[in-house]
Amino acid sequence: KKSKILSFLKWTWRLSLISAVGGAGWVCYGIYEMRNPQDQPPPDPSKKTLVILGTGWGSVSLLKKLDTENYNVIVISPRNYFLFTPLLPSCTVGTIEHRSIMEPIRNFLRHKKAAVKYYEAEATKIDYANKVIYVNDDSEIKGDVSTTEVPFDMLVVGVGAENATFGISGVKEHALFLKEVRDAQKIRNRIMDCIETATFKDQSESEVQRLLHMVVVGGGPTGVEFAGELQDFFNNDLQKWIPDIKDNFHVTLVEALPNVLPMFSKQLIEYTEKTFKEETITIRTKTMVKNVTDKYIEAESIGPDGKKVLQKIPYGLLVWATGNALRPIVKDLMSQIPAQKDSRRGLAVNEYLVVKGTENVWAVGDCAVANYAPTAQVAAQEGAFLAKMFNQMAKTHDIEAELADLSVRQETAPDKETRTKAFDEIKELQKRLRRVKSVNPFEYTHQGSLAYIGSEKAVADITWFEGNIASGGTLTYIFWRSAYLSMCFSSRNRILVCMDWVKSKVFGRDCSRV
Ligand code: FAD
Ligand code: NAI
Hints:
The chain has 514 residues and is an alpha/beta fold. It folds into 4 domains: 36 residues; 181 residues, FAD/NAD(P)-binding domain (3-Layer(bba) Sandwich), CATH 3.50.50.100; 217 residues, FAD/NAD(P)-binding domain (3-Layer(bba) Sandwich), CATH 3.50.50.100; 44 residues. 42% of the residues lie in helices and 21% in strands. The protein is built from 14 helices and 24 strands. The strands form 8 sheets. The chain has a 5-stranded parallel β-sheet with strand order 5-2-1-9-20, with no helix packed on it. A hairpin with a 2-residue loop joins strand 23 and strand 24. Helix 2 runs parallel beside helix 11, helix 6 packs antiparallel against helix 7 and helix 11 runs antiparallel to helix 12. The relative contact order is 0.13. The model has no long low-confidence stretch (mean pLDDT 95). The protein binds flavin-adenine dinucleotide and 1,4-dihydronicotinamide adenine dinucleotide (NAI). Flavin-adenine dinucleotide binds next to helix 2, strand 2, helix 3, strand 6 and helix 11. The site of 1,4-dihydronicotinamide adenine dinucleotide has 28 residues, from helix 8, strand 14 and strand 22.
């Protein structure tokens, strides 16, 4: 009996060893492949030129699934990386370093089947009638040529949106936004600048209070997540390293509507507001910012007597997160297409994401109006849908060419037998064509909404079969972390994000200013 157990253990040990060696070999091969991409066939100019604008959620999701052998693909974007925006608020306080959530577009494109041309440039105008895009190199280093034209047969517009300011005076000059990596870097520096200036020798009491008042305008998920992260930074790190600021550091969230997070269920809104209260973040709802100066905002609210009051709120840091507005290039394209006349929020698209009034222009993500919220989830699903459709369209094109060829062969066939054979093949191909052509319209599947609210708590409205599960708290926070970790672009991003989480937990967040 003893020898049987020993032999069983020996075999188990051998099998585990073989699996471990096999697993390690597989990982090493994956790393080798990643570091040494294979040669790609060059773009084929005889194929249709498909131009994709942007390297955000919509465009990159399209590129991920697109068979690039079928088209002459050109990508144009001023940003040569993909940014995982859901974790951007964590970069403003150093919980995560920004490079951990960036994926270079060059690495990604280098692994596609056929080569894709990438131009780091901003598209300044789309000339729809002449099928040409004007591009501009807006980087610091410029060559002899810094503006040029790119012709297209097919165009996908995935340029996202810019920050809405509603024309409120002083916002652009004095507020910081939270959309891009450089915004997060600016906020991180500004927080520390305010703190160091507040602790400057002989600073007056009122100035200390102003400098340490961190105001966030907009109670949507961007504003709420940032306010939560900022309060965490103070609670976990700042007040320990700089005890002088303990009594004056304060975060205020200003929202025009009666509550924050309007897209979440009522119980989660209440939970968020309660959590903020415990964290000592002030929420000022029904308060509309009307004017911004370099030192205070002017906000309108309803006073106890029911009358409107305009109040000056001094601030050190002002983060403006009031949603999306159209980019000029999108506005300009809309003005060229009569069918877009009545669209206000972006490019109106049909159920196949074709820009209404055009045949060869598609739009994805925040710049498209398809009756869904402007979220990463929607943009990613739209991009994946377009990839599937374009792959099918290429197959259709090939089958149609084959059919035309067979029809000629059938007509010119010397004998009956060859004619019958060609006829059968045509019937078979027509069947395949019908199958390939039958692409269902785009349908968005909502998987739920998630938001971090600070002090290791998150809220989630998850779609479960036909129903909805609403949950908030620390377990939801663990779910939030695992969900976003699994959604990161690459394994490299996942590893870096995990390392950042461990680093900030063990050593605290870095409070140096660069
Ligand atoms: P983007 O991802 O913004 O990409 C636009 C691309 O176009 C960029 O590469 C840009 O450089 C490029 N571009 C801009 N102008 C031009 C031009 N003129 N020519 C060429 N290229 C151009 N959504 C969620 O679902 N869940 C979340 O948790 C979540 N968190 C978020 C957190 C923050 C802080 C922010 C700001 C947004 C968050 N969102 C989230 C929303 C989500 O990021 C957007 O809905 C999503 O990025 C939209 O994708 P997009 O492809 O349309 O645009
Ligand atoms: P938003 O549009 O969701 O919210 C902006 C808020 O600002 C609104 O509630 C509005 O009432 C308020 N506001 C506007 N003008 C104001 C003023 N003058 N004074 C005071 N308040 C004012 O914008 P946000 O948060 O930037 O999000 C943009 C998009 O990105 C949304 O679709 C959102 O769902 C998505 N997103 C999703 C996240 C998530 O799922 N966790 C995180 C961040 C963004």
